[in-house]
Design a protein that fits this description.
The complex is a heterodimer of chains A (372) and B (533). Chain A contains eight helices and 22 strands. Chain A is of the alpha+beta class and 372 residues long. Classes of the chains: A alpha+beta (372), B mainly alpha (533).
Chain lengths: 372, 533
């Protein structure tokens, strides 16, 4: 049974570059190998004025290497990196980090222990006139809400405060692009959510174009304007957070973001017969008549499904469950053999091996992939 | 950060580009340091070839063999005595419930900082049936001289090596092991023999080898005590204008030193865990009851002999002075002190300048080259001062005559001998500088050199200062190289003490000796402060 809710599908904005003007930062076929291993593999990406783009991927996927290449701390083996009007890294050109208009916020914050907070912030603008430096430092410490800490030592600060100093320090020289390396991984879990909003506010107020790197999908989806999912050194998909989540372009993206279950079936006469019943082709994104006869896997997220105990007309069995606090996620093995996940309110406590009826409740088109 | 991202920059260095230029520049410097260190020592071989066929003859002559035998005997006696003194003191200060434990610990370690020739000088000047001490006390005291005197003095000032390494082993000992042995029906002594001793043995051995090295290389004590061991005999041959023979003996001493060093490196490889502190730190208490007060007699006696006595004697000379020194043209002048400070400052400055690139490089990566370059200087550190001096004299005379007995040559000798101390402390502080701080400075618009000046340098400054201080203070105390390589007429504090002793007129040496005691105390303080960080 399919319950199509009354809400019309959300109007989607296209991500065409023409809407955004020229890119501030462009990577074209960038490759970097360490010995036999290719960390970054023919990676191409554009970053536009004022946006916050996050490189998201599992550890070891090459995202930190990409960041170091952008900062000029490392040099690519092939490909071009353009920043603003000029090429900063190419086959016969390499601009060192100090001559690039790029700021970098380190994972460990890397505050200079021998300098005060104010001196740290002023570090990158020493060639400015003294009163300008003074004004800039004051302005930035105001922005990050640390005006009273100017003369403190970085050692006196909490993790969140250090991060804000690190941000202020890299913003001081007004970089064209600000890079953030796993910006929240050195913070207590309880502080992370708060700092995400804080960092986003600071970046937006400063109006800076930013590229951040993380392996934490929740962080990427919550702070970014766009997310680039990276796997094995290249970009799998770049789009706004809700698009990558709901319309993954590859199985990797689908499985990396959130829990994804798949039900398989063949498209015939405008519908797909699956373990969850018959799905009309129009609830599946972009599944036109030209695919008639194709075997496909339809992606269903835990929040698209409900499982109801049913001994009369069941279509599956609860195989496992995860308790996350606010909710239960049940792993259900459907009678046809496909495995899906259903998210329930924490009060809905179902037993293992319970026979259930799983129904689909969606207010958005479903994504699909050709069957494996 | 994944492993490959971390090893990346390392692999990167193996490949071309600008980094390669830095690399080859560094390799050139490394080669230069290595050559500068080894070339003079190699010159000993050239000197010896001047002897021709006589070289072998002299090597196995009864005189030479007697020197070898006496040297080995002195080293053996001093090492055994140091173990006999050092181990009980270590057990006492770690495991026994003695009052003021910290005070006794520092007191037992303190003689290490005092150069043994000061002790020898004090003992020589005060003891003996007709000595001032006998006169003052009204009873005839035996003279402290010869083989026994040298062994006593060397033991008093080198046992702290055994004391300190044994302490470290005892502190890292898991106390529950001893308790386990006790529950398995071992008596206290049996438990010590069967459980504690095997575990602290590597620590004792490490300390004993350091003692052996010191006893072998010490120049002042055997000379003052007039014992014909290698260092004394080499000097007397050199004085007798037998440079080739001195070179031959130097090579022999170097070979014996090599044997001890080899033994030390083998032990060092075995006891990797001996100094590491593990869980239950040395809580095994040695209950002495009231015996703990008489037990304190041992450290008290050692402290009196090694510290109180010489300082007391110097103080006595200071108060009493002595007539007739003006006649021998040996009156003390503060210019000796200024010379000491001047040459030590030069040595400290030069050492730091050479040590900086070596230490920074070896701290920033673990390439073989960097590792090797950091180790090569230790050859100079382990070479006995008299050997280095003889080698440099021959080398300068034959190869670069304008440098013979000049300040630059003297400072070079100091750098060869003491620069490793600076490498060590700079390296330690450089390793604590997070590479990301440099990268942060780079992304904030600083060039390589700019980032070095603004970030690296201020952060390693304490290490640089410590290294310079250590070189400065050890140079102040250095005897053999100073004595042989100094320009004619350039007298320092130690040279003055040497001349006073040679003339048999002790009184005027009070001020320089006390100054050197203070310098010794300072160097100990610097070392302790460094360890606290």
């Amino acid at each position: 049974m399919i319950e199509q809710t009354t809400k019309p599908p959300v109007e989607r904005r296209t991500d065409s570059p023409t809407e955004r003007g020229d890119p501030v930062l462009e990577l074209d076929g960038v490759t970097r190998s360490f010995g036999p291993e290719t960390a970054v593999d023919d990676l191409s990406l554009s970053v536009y004025e004022g946006e916050l783009l996050t490189l998201l991927g599992p550890s070891g996927c090459g995202k930190t290497t990409t960041l170091r290449l952008l900062a000029g701390l490392d040099r690519p083996d092939a490909g071009t990196i353009r920043l603003g009007q000029g090429t900063v890294s190419g086959p016969d050109r390499f601009v060192p980090p100090d001559d690039r208009d790029v700021g970098l916020v380190f994972q460990s914050f890397a505050l200079f222990p021998h300098l005060s907070v104010g001196e740290n912030v002023a570090f990158g603008i020493q060639e400015w006139a003294d009163d300008e430096v003074d004004r800039r430092v004051e302005q930035l410490l105001d922005l990050v809400d640390l005006a009273d800490y100017r003369d403190h030592s970085p050692d006196d600060l909490s993790g969140g405060q250090r991060q804000r100093v690190a941000l202020a320090r890299s913003l001081a020289p007004e970089p064209e692009v600000l890079l953030l390396d796993e910006p929240f991984s050195n913070l207590d879990v309880s502080l992370r959510v708060e700092m995400r909003e804080e960092v986003r506010r600071i970046l937006k107020e400063a109006g800076v174009t930013a590229v951040s790197v993380t392996h934490d999908q929740e962080e990427a989806l919550s702070i970014s304007d766009r997310v680039a999912v990276i796997s094995d050194g290249s970009v799998e998909q770049v789009a706004r957070p809700e698009v990558v989540f709901e319309q993954p372009e590859s199985r990797f993206v689908a499985e990396f973001l959130g829990q994804a279950g798949f039900v398989s079936g063949r498209l015939a006469a405008g519908a797909v017969e699956t373990d969850l019943g018959t799905l009309p082709a129009d609830v599946i994104e972009g599944l036109g008549p030209e695919y008639d006869g194709a075997r496909i896997d339809v992606m269903v997220r835990p929040d698209d499904l409900v499982a109801i105990p049913d001994d009369d007309d069941p279509n599956g069995r609860i195989r496992n469950r995860q308790y996350t606090g606010p909710s239960f996620v049940y792993e259900v093995e459907l009678d046809g053999g496909d495995v899906v996940y259903c998210e329930h309110n924490h009060a809905d406590n179902l037993d293992l091996d319970q026979r259930v009826r799983v129904d689909l409740r969606v207010d958005h088109p479903l994504a699909w992939f050709p069957a494996r | 950060m994944s492993v490959r991202e971390r090893v990346g920059p390392l692999l990167d260095r193996l490949r071309g580009g600008r980094v390669a230029a830095v690399d080859s520049g560094y390799a050139a410097l490394a080669m230069l340091v290595a050559v500068a260190l080894v070339a003079p020592l190699a010159w000993l071989v050239v000197d010896v070839t001047g002897l021709g066929g006589r070289a072998l003859e002299l090597t196995i002559s009864s005189r030479t063999l007697a020197v070898l035998g006496r040297s080995v005997a002195l080293v053996a006696v001093v090492t055994a005595a140091s173990i006999a003194v050092g181990v009980p003191l270590a057990v006492l200060t770690v495991q026994a419930s003695i009052p003021y434990r910290r005070f006794w610990t520092v007191l037992c370690a303190l003689p290490l900082a005092v150069p043994s020739y000061l002790g020898a000088f004090a003992a020589l000047s005060a003891f003996g049936p007709d000595g001032p001490l006998s006169t003052a006390l009204g009873l005839p005291l035996p003279a402290v001289e010869g083989f026994a005197g040298a062994a006593l003095i060397l033991t008093l000032y080198t046992y702290p090596y055994v004391f300190l390494t044994t302490r470290a082993s005892l502190l890292s000992l898991d106390a529950s092991l001893v308790e386990a042995a006790r529950t398995l029906n071992c008596g206290r002594l049996t438990a010590f023999r069967r459980v504690t001793l095997p575990q602290i043995l590597p620590g004792i051995a490490a300390g004993a080898l350091l003692v052996a090295l010191y006893a072998l290389a010490d120049f002042g004590t055997p000379n003052f005590m007039n014992v014909e061991v290698f260092t004394q005999f080499i000097y007397s041959r050199y004085q007798g204008l037998m440079r080739d023979y001195a070179a031959l003996l130097s090579l022999q001493l170097l070979a014996v030193t090599g044997v001890v060093l080899f033994a030390e490196s083998r032990i060092g490889a075995d006891d990797s865990g001996a100094y590491a502190s593990r869980g239950n730190r040395g809580a095994a208490e040695l209950r002495l009851g009231l015996w703990r007060y008489p037990a304190l007699a041992l450290p008290a006696l050692v402290a009196v002999l090694a510290l109180v006595l010489p300082i007391g004697i110097f103080a006595m000379w200071l108060v009493r002075g002595g007539p007739g020194y003006e006649f021998a043209q040996l009156s003390f002048s503060w210019s000796y002190g200024w010379n000491s400070i001047y040459v030590s400052a030069l040595a400290a400055l030069a050492s730091v300048l050479v040590a900086l690139p070596i230490a920074l490089r070896s701290a920033s990566e673990d390439s073989r080259l960097a590792d090797l370059t950091a180790r090569v200087p230790y050859v100079g550190y382990a070479t006995p001062g008299i050997v280095l001096a003889i080698a440099l004299l021959g080398f300068s005379l034959d190869v670069v005559p304008p440098l013979y007995k000049t300040l630059p040559l003297l400072v070079f000798a100091y750098v060869v001998r003491f620069m490793p101390q600076a490498v060590g402390s700079v390296r330690t502080s450089a390793m604590q500088v997070d590479r990301r701080l440099i990268e942060a400075a780079r992304t904030l618009g600083r060039s390589r050199t700019g980032a070095f000046r603004a970030v690296t340098l201020p952060l390693i400054a304490p290490g640089v200062v410590t290294g310079a201080a250590l070189v400065f203070l050890t140079t102040m105390k250095e005897l053999p190289a100073t004595l042989l390589l100094r320009p004619i007429g350039f007298d320092t504090l130690v040279v003055y003490i040497w001349r006073v002793e040679e003339a048999g007129l002790y009184g005027q040496a009070a001020i320089p000796a006390l100054v050197l005691v203070v310098v010794s105390g300072l160097s100990m303080a610097v070392l302790l402060a460094q360890e606290d960080n």
